[in-house]
Amino acid sequence: SSSTVKNFVSVIDDDNISKNLSCQVVCIGPVTAETAKGLGIKVSAIADTYTIDGLVDKLTEIMEVN
C-alpha cells in the first residue's frame, strides 16, 4: 500500500533511495507504484491483479525471467 511505501522510505531515511536500493520493487497496484515512483523508488513491475495472489504471481514471473 502507499502507506507501506511511505513508512519504508521514512525508516530508510535515504535522500537518494533510487541509487541505494539494490533490489527489484514490485507493487500490488498502480496507486502504490505511483507513490513509490514519487518517492524516488524505481518500480520494476506492477501486479496484473491487485491482490496478494496477483503480487506473488508477478514476483514469480519476474524471477523466472531473471
Task: Please render the helix and strand layout as text.
Elements lengths: L1 H11 L4 H4 L5 E2 L2 H9 L6 E2 L5 H14 L1
Parallel strand pairs: 1-2
Helix pairs in contact: 1-3
Write a short abstract of this structure.
With 66 residues, the chain is mainly alpha-helical. It has helices at 2-12, 17-20, 30-38, 52-65, and strands at residues 26-27, 45-46.
Features of this protein?
single chain; 66 residues; mainly alpha; two-stranded parallel ribbon; 2 strands; 6% strand
Describe the fold and architecture.
This protein is mainly α and 66 residues long. Strand 1, helix 3 and strand 2 form a beta-alpha-beta unit. The model has no long low-confidence stretch (mean pLDDT 89).
Estimate the helix proportion, in percent: 55-70%
Tell me the distance between the termini: 25 Å
Number of helices: 4
- In terms of structural class, how would the helical and strand content be classed? mainly alpha
Residue ranges: pLDDT <50 for 5 or more in a row?
Answer: none
Average predicted confidence as pLDDT: 89
What is the CA-based Rg, rounded? 12 Å
Strand content: 5-15%
